[in-house]
Amino acid sequence: MSSTSFQKTFTIGGALTVQRMGYGAMRITGQGIWGPPKDHAEAIRVLQRAVELGVDFIDTADSYGPHVSEELIAEALHPYKPGLVIATKGGFDRTGPNQWQMNGRPEHLQSALAGSLERLKLDRIDLYQLHRIDPNVPFEKMMEFLARAQQDGLIKYIGLSEVSVAQIKKAEAFVEIVSVQNKYSVDNRDWESVLKYCEETGKAFIPWNPLNANNATSMGKLEAIAKQLNATPHQVALSWLLHHSPNILLIPGTSSVKHLEQNLAAAAIVLDEAVMKELNSIGK
After folding, report:
1. Is residue 4 part of a domain?
2. Would you state the pLDDT for residue 214?
3. Residue at 155 is within a domain
4. Which of 64, 128, 184, 197 is catalytic?
């Protein structure tokens, strides 16, 4: 799956072609992904600068804030530039900073979707993702809601988050799944089988937490390679993802314009076969 060059774009659902380096809008909220940002003006600048630099895929969720991220996106970018794809998610209740409670009840998802449409000032969500599969709600009830919302024209495409291959296949008995958003990075490849399944079936794979860096060994290797390339470890980790599989869409998040620009610059880094081999060894 690796090479020394990579495809710059990916087409979601066979119709929405986007740059593979996108932006994740979770970090423009307050501490603990709760409340408004510390610097409102900088959050607006981040969103506007992302689009100026060619980002045409922005990922958010009703639970970021909650609601704050979606409101900021509309404030900064509406009316939206043609071709800009905004993906959002539903399926969590928020009760405080860093507190997340799954809620996949159809009535909650209905309210979440309606709220997202209103806050984003959209008539239809291009990519709506079930934030989690709630084990306390019948699976078919969640899927039936998504299918109905799609039939009603409120959703164009449907995605899932933190799911196994078996769960994707189960969902596909009800709806077409065009994307999967799972935790994945150069040093955390627990979902490798899901990535491969998505690549084989033409689905976008959207990794979150693209630099796990949970141990000194992996971080040390990344730092050494980054020094060779005159880059940051985070840039190397992002570049590896772009090289690793052509269906990966990146959504690195930040609340800083400077950090945003550093992230997007990772798309210009070319990794040769020797570097890719060394990076591949980190996750094994």
Report:
1. no
2. 65
3. yes
4. 64
